[in-house]
Amino acid sequence: MSVFTRSRTSAFLGGIALVGASALVLAGCSGGGTGGSDEPTESAGPVDELSLKIGTALPQTGNLAFLGPPEEAGVAYAVSQINDATADTGLDIDVVYGDSGDTDNKAYETEIPRLLGEDVSAIIGAASSGVSLQFIDQVTGAGVIQFSPANTSDAFTTYDDNGLYFRTAPSDVLQGEVLGNLIAEDGNQTLGMIVLNDSYGTGLAKYVTEAFEEAGGEVVAAPTYNTGDTSFDAQISEVLAADPDAIALITFEEVKTILPSLFGQFPADKLYFVDGNLANFGDEFPAGSLTGAKGTFPGLSLDTITDFTDALQTFNTDEGNEPLTEFTYAAESYDATILLALAALAAGSTDPAAISEKLIEVSGGSGDGEKCESYADCAAIIVGGGTADYDGISGPITFDEVGDPTEASIGIYQFKDDNTYEAYEG
Fold it and tell me: How many CB atoms are located within 10 Å of the residue 7 CB?
């Protein structure tokens, strides 16, 4: 594996680009952040009884609904492991599940008040950055933690969030850099993009453009569309008229409507996907429609965490749910839940402010803690009076002072003839 730095000289190996967020302008203290201190703090030690309640605002409906099942499964799997250890830790956890929807159906307008009314300490969600921005003030203003497993907009790095916003997904500064360089390294000189007009889409497009142009390429068209749009003829025509070497689709589920108009008019192996739309389409399109297309999403390559995804699938089906067809952001959702429980345990409290004070510490961002890779092992360290440093399924995490992970992996994938994807071996 190669470390991907701002020099843009890295190679892509085994479907993963490792990115150090500390090399980017992500660690500033201005704007939002967490309430955590950089100074080591003593752990609270064992507690007699601690009942933590959290909510989820993940996409059960809307243009990211395909991400809802793996994210909710990740939360549920973590909860099962946390509660299995209650006898040893004194902490149990309960979840109230809710729907974030999207900015068109606005499910969050009723779901967020409902979740807050349940007296939760934290809400995990939303998946969409644009949706999270619709209710972050409502959640953090109520003194509740908002913890997203999938928000990637750079807007959150400096957001005034009362120290109560965290995320296990890295900023789009990183994914944009990886994707822009991947497109350039594939030999493309010109690039067209179709872009969702929200904080996620335009932000990611900005960083793809910067990376691609710095590598010597030119973006020749980048039309946008709005959530809820159903026709994309104008955007497709504009991009095709510019005759680009490659097209990046920076969209959510709308990609299913866009793709059929590109088939036969543009080579599949010159199409590039992002985390908002990279899916195993299978027989939704004719076999071979996407052969050679590539895409990225944050997190370790799924090929490297098969023990986790296999166990998650077994857990999910044992709970009576339909088998998962996607695992995108499942690990990040799992890790978010584990981190909230460990922070509550370390604080000896379910108060959101107290938990937020400990989230940086249990992630390894402060406190010089002992490395551990499971809830049970980390909890044992805390109960024993030590400081835990959790390295998760999705990566080391290690929050900085604004609640962003300081290092991340960006998975690179390529579609096969059956319209499903696998790790790209470049």
Answer: 8
Rounded CA-CA distance 49/91 in Å is 6
Strand segments, DSSP code E, in 59-205 are 91-99, 122-125, 145-148, 165-167, 190-196
Contact, 340 vs 122, CB < 8 A? yes
**If you average pLDDT over residues 396-413, what whole number do you get?**
92
How many residues are present in the chain? 426
Q: What is the pLDDT of residues 65-116, one digit of tens each?
A: 999 999 999 999 999 999 999 999 999 999 999 999 999 999 999 999 999 9
Q: How far apart are CA 217 and CA 197, in angstroms?
A: 23
The SS3 assignment for 55 reads strand
C-alpha to C-alpha distance for 255 and 247, rounded to whole angstroms: 12
Closest CA to 130 of 279, 251, 272: 251
Other C-beta atoms closer than 10 Å to the C-beta of 236 total: 21
- CATH superfamily for 173-296+412-423 is Response regulator (3.40.50.2300)
For the chain, give every domain's residue range: 31-170+310-395, 173-296+412-423
Q: Whole-angstrom Cα distance, residue 356 to residue 118?
A: 19
Radius of gyration of the chain (CA): 21
Q: How far is CA 79 from the centre of its chain?
A: 19
Same fold, 31-170+310-395 and 173-296+412-423: yes
Residue 298, classed as helix, strand or coil, is strand
Locate 315 and state its tokens. Answer: 């857990």
**Residue 167: both structure tokens together:** 């995320």
Residue 176: closest CA among 209, 207, 219, 214: 207
Instruction: Measure the CA–CA gap between 335 and 333, rounded to whole angstroms.
Output: 5
Q: Is the pTM of this model over 0.90?
A: no
- For domain 31-170+310-395, give the CATH number: 3.40.50.2300
Separation CA 48–CA 331 (nearest Å) = 30
Nearest to 98 by CA among 54, 41, 142: 54
